[in-house]
Design brief:
1 helix
Amino acid sequence: MTNFLFFLLGLIVGGLMGIVMMCLCIIAKKSDEHIEE
C-alpha cells in the first residue's frame, strides 16, 4: 500500500513539474516575441 502511495505522489509531483515547465516555455516564447518587437 505504501508503494502505491509513493507511486501516486510521484505521478502528482511529475505532473505538476511538467505543467510548470510548459508554462515557463510559453512565457519564454512570449517574452522573446516582445523582445523582437
